[in-house]
DNA sequence: CCGGATCCGTTTCGATACTG
DNA sequence: CAGTATCGAAACGGATCCGG
């Protein structure tokens, strides 16, 4: 009995997400953009995971070419750039939220606040909306020129 | 306003998921286990992504040691083994579902059935339950000996 | 045959030094 | 400060070999 018939509708399009989701550093950058309000090259570098400069450059380039993020010159500081999520990039949020939830309750008893997580788990929608809102705030401040 | 206070509660535990989610081949195997009802070494090898034997071995080993999957000797064929998701492994399903959804509607207009996806998107719970059910069916047939 | 370990040529990654 | 060059380390893919 061919297994393909009963499950995996449409050849399991997970493959299309592998380039993004299957890469550790890409995920770290996306997390920083979504949940930590980071927008600068230097800020990404200082993330606890310790990404290297060439890796960061490569991933930012890939994400930009792929339409997940975009960038502008820093409004006041000419030497800096600001990176931010495109609308397409924001569609990855449910995925990142699931990652956060799963990562939270796997290290049970560790440094993870107990019921904050269950709250997040029960209010994914609200959590997503709050996060989107804070992204919108940042955009309102920094993307006026567009 | 320090960005850390308003978002990223609890130091963003995404990091805990990176070993699993940040690896392409691990995700491919998990997809095969969850959505394609594959349970044998050889079946994984034949997946369209084309994983190499040594890579497959390494990932299966890691996933086993990490408690995501488990394995038993094939009930009728002594030389084969059967791999299957543990309860812990099944907790990754929401994440894989989000990956599937995201992968589906990014390749817009491609080989993806149109409204099947939106149905899946609107019925994540149901889709998850259906999938869990089909996993349970398989277990009922193959894990009797436990 | 099947799972899987080992070896090897090639590619990719990543830490650091360096440049504009 | 953003990004590149370099170079050793690791991962990958493929083939082969081994044990049951």
Per-chain topology:
The structure is a homodimer of 146-residue chains.
Chain A: H1 15-21, H2 24-35, H3 41-45, H4 53-65, E1 69-73, E2 81-85, H5 87-90, H6 93-106, H7 114-122, H8 124-142
Antiparallel strand pairs in A: 1-2
Helix pairs in contact in A: 6-7
Chain B binds a DNA duplex (20 and 20 nucleotides) through helix 5.
Protein described:
The structure is a homodimer of 146-residue chains. In chain A, α6 (93-106) runs antiparallel to α7. Chain A starts with 14 loop residues before the first helix and ends with a helix. The first copy, chain A, is globular and about 45 Å long. The first copy, chain A, has 146 residues and is mainly α. Chain A is built from 8 helices and 2 strands, in the order ααααββαααα. In chain A, 57% of the residues lie in helices and 7% in strands. Chain A has helices spanning 15-21, 24-35, 41-45, 53-65, 87-90, 93-106, 114-122, 124-142; strands spanning 69-73, 81-85. In chain A, a hairpin with a 7-residue loop joins β1 and β2. The longest helix of chain A is centred in the C-terminal third of the chain and has 19 residues, at 124-142.
- Radius of gyration over C-alpha positions of chain A, nearest whole angstrom: 17 Å
Helical residues, percent of chain A: 55-70%
Protein chain pair with the most extensive contact, residues per chain: A-B, 52 and 52 residues
Distance linking N and C termini of chain A: 56 Å
Structural category of chain A is mainly alpha
What can be said about the biggest beta sheet of chain A?
2 strands, antiparallel
Strand content of chain A: 5-15%
Write down the overall geometry of chain A. Answer: globular
Report the uncertain regions of chain A. Answer: 1-10
Order of helices and strands of chain A: HHHHEEHHHH
Q: What's the overall average pLDDT of chain A, rounded?
A: 85
**Strands in their spatial order, largest beta sheet of chain A:** 1-2
Number of strands of chain A: 2
């Amino acid at each position: 009995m061919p297994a393909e018939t009963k499950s995996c509708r449409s050849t399991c399009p997970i493959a299309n997400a592998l380039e993004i989701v299957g890469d550790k550093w890409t995920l770290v950058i996306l997390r920083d953009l979504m949940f930590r309000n980071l927008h600068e090259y230097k800020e990404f570098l200082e993330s606890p995971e310790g990404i290297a400069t060439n890796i960061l450059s490569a991933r930012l380039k890939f994400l930009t070419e792929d339409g997940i993020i975009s960038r502008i010159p820093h409004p006041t500081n000419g030497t800096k750039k600001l990176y931010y999520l495109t609308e397409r990039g924001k569609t990855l949020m449910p995925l990142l939220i699931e990652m956060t939830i799963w990562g939270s309750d796997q290290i049970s008893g560790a440094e993870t606040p107990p019921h904050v997580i269950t709250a997040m788990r029960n209010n994914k929608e609200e959590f997503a909306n709050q996060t989107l809102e804070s992204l919108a705030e940042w955009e309102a401040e920094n993307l006026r020129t567009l």
